[in-house]
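Dear colleague,

Following up on yesterday's call, I've attached the two folding results inline so they're easy to grep. Please treat them as preliminary; we haven't cross-checked anything against experimental data yet. The first protein's sequence and structure tokens come first.
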Amino acid sequence: MKETINQSEFFYSFANQLPYSVFLFKSKSQTFAKENSLLFSNSKAMELQRTPKLGSTHLNIGSLFPFLFESELFKNIQAVWNEYKQWEEVITKNTFQYFGFQNQTYLLKLTRLDSIHYTISLEELTDAILAEKILRQKETKLDRLLKTMINGVVVVNLEGQILYANESASEILDLELEKIENRYFSSKEWKQISEDGSPFPADKLPLALALGKQITVYNCEHGIISEDGHVKWLNVNATPLFDEHGNLEGATASFLDITELKNTQNTIEQQNRKLTSILNAIERSAIVSVTNPEGIIIRANPKFIKISGFTESEIIGSDHKILSSDYHKKEFWQGLWEQIKKGKTWEGVIKNKSKDGNYFWLQTFIHPLYNLQDEIEAYLSIRFDITEEIEALENTNRMLHFTGIQNNRLQNFAYIISHNIRQHSSNFTSLIQLLEESKSEEDKKNLIEMLHVSSIQLEETISHLNDIISINQTLNKPMEDCSLKKEVDKTLSILSGSIELRKIQVDVQIPEGLTIRTIPAYLESILLNLLSNAVKYVRLKQGAWIKVGIEENNEQITILVEDNGLGINLEKHGNKIFGMFKTFHRNEDARGIGLFITKSQVEVLGGEIIVESEEQKGSRFFVRLPKNPEETLRV
């Protein structure tokens, strides 16, 4: 205890003899904080007092030096506190709470004595001392700055000899500092090269220009070959240095290693050249457009404008609905947008319509384009005209369609030839033989009558064959827009006598103005066959009715002919109901040709016919036809 007191007395005695102010503080928590209490202030410090309270023990560092806890100063002190390093700062302050400086400039030092004690000293600075101190501080900061810079820095004298190099220069040049300093910047040992690999001209080096022409050089790029043969690329700045009299005394250069950047730049340039070639090829061969995220066209190449038939001013600012053919359903476009908004590429075939009304098909690829924030900023559409391919495929499908129909007809045709004609031929042969052998005139007369009947039957068979052939002959007949209400009314008018005779109630439900593009003769034949069958096989009693209904759905026309007549046993006859010479009732007018011809005509128009029936309850025939069959059935 006595030794501690002696040490304190020694410290106080020593401090009182110092020519500058000293304050001793204590930190119970071993931290630098405003609450650290004042233990002692020397006699020089007492001269600064404005109040007797300066020597009292309740004072702390926060009340005496509040400015030390301003953010920047406090941060600097904290950085050296735990390392027990001395911290100093030149300060100029007018007044404090307990003492004033009268505008003097002081050097403030903070020195940590042990874990809980530290001092703050205030030394008044003269102009000379201040200048020297400031210079020393600047030199220290400069040295610290140079050591921490990522730039390599060298300083040369008038002869170009390197006097100073920082550590970054050593790392960039792959040389120890001893090998850099004292070497001349223009020495051939550096092996400095231009971008094409040739030696870099010595008089064009940045330091040479700074010394020779006394100018500052920015962003000069050249390579330097290291001792192991690798090339490093440098970006160099250089500037002349002058003394206080304005005389040139040397130059300094700073440089960065841009080798990786240079290699990346070369790679990017190569990729850009490739990309440019690809884009030029696409521009020449593809139909290209770019839209904003909302689908508004902001760019269209000449091929796009040409195939669309619109002018560029009509295209830019519009969306792709300007080319809509109304072919694709709403769900198609919803699926497309859903996919590209998720950042996925969409691929598909789109049918478009040009300004002059021509349809064309495009194989389409839509790619999202992103900005630097990884947000979709546009959509790139690349398209190829595949109209010829689509039409060729449609023609192939139509040919297959017609080939199937023709094969079916040929089978029936062959059946007629092989069966019916052969029977007629055999019957004629037999009758003629009997006629030759007949003795009586009565027998001959009967045989001749039988020959006459057989001739009529043969004529009917040939007529049926002609009906089949006529379908082939009308395949290329022009199509027209027909009013469905008008055609049904015309057919019912033809059958009106039979309808009135059988007292049939007819219910017709057809929307006004509903039309279909078709071959008029086919539509008339289809309606006449279906309605005449309904009339023919009606039950001859009260309550007979026929209903005709037509509706449009998704570019398809559905014709319904329904009756409550005799009906058909579909379990027994369903697989042959549309066959040739198939009858299902004992009606003497039945020939078994009508439904066969109807089905053939429906199929030629690209449609289908379906039957629902039950014996003694009636039948329902559904005919479904495309509203615009020539779109898919052009031959």
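Below is the second protein, in the same order (sequence, then structure):
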Amino acid sequence: MAEAADELSTPLGQNTAGRTRRVRLPFTAMQALAVLLGLVLVGFAGVALFNDNPLGGEPIARITLRNPPPAAADDKHAPAEPVVKSAAKAPAAAGDAKNDAKTVTIIDGSSGKRQDVVIGAGDPAEKTTDGDAPPLAMTGIDPRLLEKSRYGMIPAVADGLKPFTVYAAEADRAKAARMPVVAIVVAGLGVGAAKTTDAIMKLPPAVTLAFTPYGADPGKLAERARTQRHEILLQIPMEPFDYPDNDPGPQTLLTTLSSEQNLDRLYWHLSRLQGYAGIANFMGARFVATDPVMQPIVREAAKRGLSFFDDGSTPRSVTQSLSAGQSLPFAKADFAIDAVPTSAEIDRALVKLETIAKERGTAVGVASALPVSIERLGAWLKTLDSKGIMLVPLTTAMLKSKSG
């Protein structure tokens, strides 16, 4: 009956015998594509979030290093002559290895830090050893007076010797004790090779040269100064009153730091060059006037057999009394001769220095390495003998003042 009813309800002229029912999906093709794309994005996000790879996305180079096979230790029949020849060729082989060295830059994807790695340049352990070795090639450096710190080699006392006495410039101290003497310190050297070289070459050896720890290679310039028989000092950057608007530079000793922190910074400065007879303040009017922070520095200088030179930047400095308490060789500049850097004012300051030397027996002037200062100093120093005044290194003036 149901089949008969369907036939009766079918419109005339239409045959439904061959029709099939169409299956309809619950989503469209575009919806399926969108879901698939979403799954791919979720997968990438999961890898990025949960995969611990800080160098993700950075190019990676894989290098295979193969150690050469060890020589047979029990080869007793190897002739001695080839071994000698191989040893003779070792320097050449080392030179070839140096030429074949390649530098690869590794970039940390998380921090952006770059690190250069040399490949094929020999044994890294050998380089580390050489880098930590004291700069014994410097002229006249006594290796016994060096002590290793975490920053490099720093001065030390050994076998009854002190850097102050070993590195003091030669002078006729008996003659200096009988007549007025003048000591000149040219400071701020090491930054600016041209002006440093002018001071080294144009001024007589009795002029003491003070180097800052900065510059590309202060040690090389200091070595050149010592080769020309100049006595040298190391200037230690210290906090001025207007710090940080007036900043001496990296690793400055500060009144806000603990004594341990300041000593650690001091060691960094002490390691920058070698062969100095003492240290001096570089700026530092506030620091040298603050007793609690200066005490550890003066004690350390005395412990290491150095001297201390105060450039006279503040009348409130406590360095003289602290140095006396430690029996530390000490001198303080009477004034800066080129505070007004003109020829006329420098000449007036030098005449004033002569007067002080004749009245007190000792006078100390400090100057920068300005061309006008070097020129006026050079001319004035030639006239001292005729005036009955002796030019001496700073260490000689220190010893005369201490004995007087």
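For the second protein, one point worth flagging: The chain has a mean pLDDT of 81.

Best wishes,
A.L.
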